[in-house]
Amino acid sequence: MANHLTPEELSKEMGIDRQEVIRVCMQEGVPIYQGKIDKTLFQAQLAALATTSPEALAS
Question: Where are the domains positioned within the chain?
Answer without folding.
Answer: 4-53
